[in-house]
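Dear all,

This email documents one entry for the complex benchmark we are building for the journal club exercise. For each entry we list the sequence lines for every component of the assembly. Then comes the predicted three-dimensional structure of the complex as a token string, followed by one or two observations. Please use this as the template for your own entries, and keep the labels exactly as they appear.
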Amino acid sequence: LSSAGAVELEGTDGAARAGWVNTARGRFAIPCFMPVGSRGAVRLLSGEDLDRLGVQVVLANTYHLMLRPGAKVVELLGGLRGFTGWEGHFLTDSGGYQVMSLPCSLSEEGVEFRSAYDGSWQRLTPEGALEAQGALGSDIAMVLDVCIALPAPREAVAAAGERTLRWARRSVLAREARGGGEGPGQMLFGIVQGGTEPDLRELYAEQLAAMGFDGFGIGGLSVGEAPAETLNALAAALGPLPAGRPRYLMGVGDPYMLVRAIGLGVDMFDCVLPTRLGRHGTALTSAGKLAVKAARFASDAMPLDPECGCAVCGHYSRGYLRHLFNVGEPTAGRLVSLHNLAWLSSLVGRAREAVLAGRFEKLAEEVAATWLPRRSPAA
Ligand SMILES: [Zn+2]
């Protein structure tokens, strides 16, 4: 095992972990929330904004960047760090999730799809996904996996999960053939699939753990299934994974599920939620979601969240932000995005402190009191 990817634990509380992930050029604190910068930028924000927010890792989408400007162009401009000018860590996904949510043709070799930009046929294979991520020069690369929509019959979940394992083996072989990581020190994470079938999750996690990845993603969860099913499948996937390697729950960022997942031993998260909600005028606050465009905030002098210590809450009233949305000023979405990322980072920071202080359960209860999903009348 390389030292890159190794987790240094500073403390645990039950299964919850706090510590650091060592990388080839530094380290980042866990638990860690990663904002999404699909095309090489977190929407409406600059690298300076990310630094001020204390963002440690950004997720960039291989699918978007391989089509525009092309992985080779990013490589020529110095990889993601040189290209964007931002000095933090980058994690790239494999591109599979985006491709498989579009019309595509899936085979044992890989997946063929039409570019959303010019309609041209493109192909993504386990080997090609690593090559593209090597050119992008991310610190953490993800293997190509097979994503299926839930609910799905068990046979379909198993077929996708087994192909994901075969692709994981091809990814390990491709990496070995190149003499290690694609870029210098690039880490490679395997991905545990298995839908909401706990026994399949456990089986696939055991097999991936034996392949010697630098870390592990848990994919295909929080896609509409009941929270109890998400948590059962997640716990089953985490069981066999080595304690000394990071665990990353992909695409999850709602406060309730994030804190519950930390409680089960997850270290890393990504989600478009804080920035997407922010652009559309919804703030994450200590009292729950706040729809700032609502008419009742027109002459409200309060900040988005009186308990938030972020710069937006230090300067701007709900009334002003509501006005900016009302007249279509892009600054509105930018400011609420900044607040949402600060708010979520602060929640993750509080979880980290709670783990270190041995009072994680208390924090989890507080968060659940506000953020536990209410069952809809139809469910
Ligand atoms: Zn704030």
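Observations: The chain has a mean pLDDT of 95. DSSP finds 15 helices and 16 strands in the chain.
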